[in-house]
Amino acid sequence: MADLDAEQRGMAQGLAVRLWNSRWLLIAGVVAIVAVYALAAISGFVILAALALLLAAAMLPVTGTRQSAESAAAIEAIGLQRLSGEYLAAAVADPLIIFDRTATIVHANAAAFAAFGGIAPGLSLSLKFRAPEMQALLDGVLSGNVASDVVDYTEKLPVERAYRVSASSVGHGTDLYVLVFKDQSEARRIDRMRADFIANASHELRTPLASISGFIETLRGPARNDPAARDQFLQIMQSQTGRMARLIDDLLSLSRLEMKPYLKPGTEVDLRETVDSVIDSLGPLATENSVVIERDYADGPLDVPGDGDELFQVFENLLENACKYGQSGGRVVVSIARGDAGSEPGIDVTIRDFGPGIPEEHIPRITERFYRVDVETSRTQKGTGLGLSIVKHILTRHNARLSIKSEFGKGAAFSVHLPTH
């Protein structure tokens, strides 16, 4: 009975609220009906009927928008009530740990187990993370001095990972706190690569600039009236400026490749024609280094999808290196063959020299920017240290791969595998 009375009171209150919200509509309607009654001959029954309809309309909800908004809010509240902290933690991709006022782990998501291992509810965070920065972070948040804080933390094992760790309280009065580990390893690796690249490029440019500056100073001073010294110094200066120009060209090539990482589809390249053009263009260099270039091509069409200019640059870099660094072998063999039936379908282009070869420990890093097996030999041969890095970037754009085989003292073979579709 009490429930029924409460329900009736609630309904009455709801009707009163609706009437109050519609008061201006009611007033306007009554005025309009009275005006019509005064100006026209309308029976009292019609007037009463109009007033009843107006009152009924006013008692209905003003719009459906408010009702749908209330329904949506109610559904949202019910859905959130069904969620637990465990479900919310599992939805976070980064490692997340919930702990209490004693710095004891209450819950850790799957990402935290994968990243750190050996963590479980009941374990002390102070024992798990002993680094001073982590201890200071926990102390600051648990003492109440700060509501949230962020530190940089490096996990050494099993592999070194760098994290940006944030700690904050959960809600108000829950006595729970949360740690979130944002992995910064890749970003820091890229930053280090950028810093190393700038340092190496600056060094490579500074060396010839210092040489040119020194010779200019000498020409303006002691060698001012020495024709023989002047000619010698000018020749060296010309060589150094050529070295800087080659380095800048290679830097621009790398920049252009990084700006257009995707390859336009639909273009076919004839590898036989491209490699022949490369060999012809490097004929004078081969003659200068007393190197004979031999060809060994498979029969039939040798077409692959790709960019002709970029693939020309790949084979030009590889063949130029073979002629320069393998000149003691006296010959270079360029072969084109179709891939084995069991492997990924494609065409392999191999450039093999018979020079001193490459020590095994250098092979994994030989495509890095500015990496050189022998710095002095590279500079003597007018190398910039960027050629193989450019090759790697171009082949990545072509979904191709480069493999290097070498035995010290017996030459080196650089093989490019290009997919046929």
Q: How would you characterize the overall build of this protein?
A:
This protein is of the alpha+beta class and 421 residues long. It is 52% helix and 18% strand. It has a 5-stranded antiparallel beta sheet, with helices on both faces. Strands 7-9-10-12-11 form a 5-stranded mixed beta sheet. A two-stranded antiparallel sheet has the order 6-8. A hairpin with a 5-residue loop joins β11 and β12. The longest helix is centred in the middle third of the chain and has 36 residues. It is elongated and about 110 Å long.
Mean pLDDT reading: 77
Q: Characterize the main sheet.
A: 5 strands, antiparallel
CATH fold-level assignment of the largest domain:
Heat Shock Protein 90
**Beta fraction:** 15-25%
CATH top level of the largest domain is Alpha Beta
Order of helices and strands: HHHHHEEHHHEEEHHEHHEEHEEHHEE
Estimate the helix proportion, in percent.
40-55%
Q: What's the name of the CATH homologous superfamily of the largest domain?
A: Histidine kinase-like ATPase, C-terminal domain
Over all CA atoms, what is the radius of gyration? 39 Å
Structure summary, number of beta strands:
12
Number of domains: 4
The number of distinct helices, counting runs of at least 4 residues, comes to 15
Subcellular location: Cell membrane
Organism: Mesorhizobium sangaii
GO molecular function, one term: phosphorelay sensor kinase activity
Keywords: ATP-binding, Cell membrane, Kinase, Membrane, Nucleotide-binding, Phosphoprotein, Transferase, Transmembrane, Transmembrane helix, Two-component regulatory system
